[in-house]
Specification:
single chain; mainly alpha; Growth Hormone, Chain: A; two-stranded antiparallel sheet; 9 helices; 2 strands; globular; binds 2-acetamido-2-deoxy-beta-D-glucopyranose; IL-34
Length: 212
Amino acid sequence: MVQKSASVCLLGGFLGLFLMAPVLMTSTPASMCTPLKTLNDSLSHRRRYMKHNFPINYSIRVYREEIFKLSNISRMRLKVEELDDLVLQRLWFQVNQGVLKKIIRVMSERHPSRSYTAELERRFKDVEGVFVQSHPAEVFQQELPEAVQETWDHLTEEPDRVQESNWRLVSPKSLVDNLCHTMYCLFSECFDTETRQNCEYHSKDKTFKIPL
Ligand SMILES: *[C@@H]1O[C@H](CO)[C@@H](O)[C@H](O)[C@H]1NC(C)=O
Ligand SMILES: *[C@@H]1O[C@H](CO)[C@@H](O)[C@H](O)[C@H]1NC(C)=O
Ligand SMILES: *[C@@H]1O[C@H](CO)[C@@H](O)[C@H](O)[C@H]1NC(C)=O
């Protein structure tokens, strides 16, 4: 009898853990806030380095899926049921590591924005390092929802296999703006309400659900 109740307790404990797991994983680990704020400090100079140091209307070629804005987040939340924020966060890292690489590639060693962008990339990688460390490895092996997997596959495609119609011309400034605005919403726990005011409309709870 005693044994039985003990095992029930144990089982209950395990169930509790499982039930809690998704909740724990959707929020941003507190350890990410420091590197995110450091990245945010760099991002505050983006107008100067991503716009003023480039010719007017200068744009670079990116994959269609490398345009990842707030509207994409709301659309994905509508399309994919119970979409975990962690999935969107993984996508954010995947998109933006490619974006930063592409921006750096168009600048010569002596370009006035080169060291700024290299620092931005370093700080971005620091955030990613903490992100990976603060979740169990299994999380990153979990299957992605189909629609997200499809986007992921396009993002990791070799450039010479990307169809002409799937390339877009975008200014470095708008790419980095996208990185910044989506960061405020996907890691909102690390930013104050004023900074993340644009997230409200795109947030999980406020996303308008189309009635069936
Ligand atoms: C992030 O940067 C913005 C713009 O520079 C600033 O207003 C905001 O206070 C910063 N937030 C944090 C948490 O560092
Ligand atoms: C830049 O783009 C805007 C909007 O498309 C256009 O009106 C303007 O003439 C362009 N400027 C240059 C210098 O190409
Ligand atoms: C974001 O939306 C645009 C416009 O619909 C689309 O072309 C792009 O592929 C989307 N990005 C992602 C990461 O899904």
